[in-house]
Amino acid sequence: MKPRVLVIDDEQAICASLSFALEDDYFMMTTTDPEEGIRIVEKERVDIILLDLRIGRYNGMDVLQRIKQKDPSVTVIMMTAYASIETSIEAIKMGAYYYIEKPINIENLSLLLLRASEFKQISNMLETLHEELEEKKGFKDFLGNSKAMKYVFSMIDRIKDIDSCVLITGESGTGKELVAKRIHFSGKRKDGPLEILNCAAIPETLLESELFGYEKGAFTGATQSKEGKWVAANGGTLFLDEISEMPLPLQAKLLRVIQEREVTPLGSNKKISLDVRILCAANKDIAQMVQEGKFREDLYFRLNVIPIKTPPLRERKEDLPLLIDYFLQKYCKEMNREKRSLSAAARRLLLDYHYPGNVRELGNIIEYAVALSIDTVIDEGDLPYYMLEQKKEDGGISNDDENSIVIPIGLSMKEIEKKVISGTLKHCGKHRQRTAETLQISERSLRDKIKLYEIEKQLMNE
Questions:
Q1: For the whole prediction, is pTM greater than 0.70?
Q2: Is the pLDDT score of 402 beyond 60?
């Protein structure tokens, strides 16, 4: 693909001659109007700009500044008949790659453009590597300005440089693994390894050997020695995801390693000293599992030194606009699609949806919409069908669904509120706490409204 070069010069003859001289090696665009040039930078991909220092009433330095504000990554070469060391240094300080004097020598310009193209390619590669590294560290997908997320970020910042065990809890899709990555990659162990083991994804028979490693001949099929996750994480961090799924016999062995800070691979008598920080995650209530005898109490207390709870998306809906725009940009780039935007109806539907799958589900929804949308504006019809079904249920369109509430047109707001509260209370089996949580109001407010609208009498008579 040819590099895209934009020439901005107030002399049409220079624009035409440069375009003619360079069109074999570059995709050329020209304009004599700086405002038009800035609009091109906004709308299209531009790799290199040849910018005149004086363009009629415009100062090329001011135009350079505006271009860099629009696209900091674009490479700008200044063209000037008034070259001086002072102006050249100033231009480079403001972000120009280099300058060339008029009248322009095409051979010199071709060499400069070749170097600028190579510089651009290297810059793009570095940017890609930086993005991949940030993604690996879990920084890019971990966003939020809500009070709940600021608390999580604050906790991470406070514990990143200590070695205490951390238990990260929260619903599926809330970003527990991202919390673990942020703790590791922002703390003192960031230069050490981060080993991740999902206790629910590995069969129970293989989990012990995966965690502890084994010597050759330790069991049938062990044709060579294998380093376990404990040893692989030495000097760094071991993240045990879905720790609640670890079988009880293995929990006892895990506890022993944590206490003794050494591990013995299967089939070996040699103990290996460990310097490993332990992070764990669970989407189940481990305290409840302890009471039920499904999780060791002593291990729970060892792991739960510093608890962090990742909030569900429904409790931080103020983060939705930020996350929606992030995923839109991410998947348009990954799929090499033209930039997408959302219609008012689609954005409203995304903001109103309850997201049982949390941030992971939001990402999947946006990926689906970007992949299947035909136009650059994503509408309601481009979103997954179940969201539209949920909208119908929430809006009370269907009278056949026991989870819906029909609201006739013309009903007063007081009658609507009474109908919604009584319907939700009935749906929740008259359980007031659950009803208050569903309606996102306090139990006191619910109690006052039940009394105000005499809803309890109404339910008793039904």
A1: no
A2: no
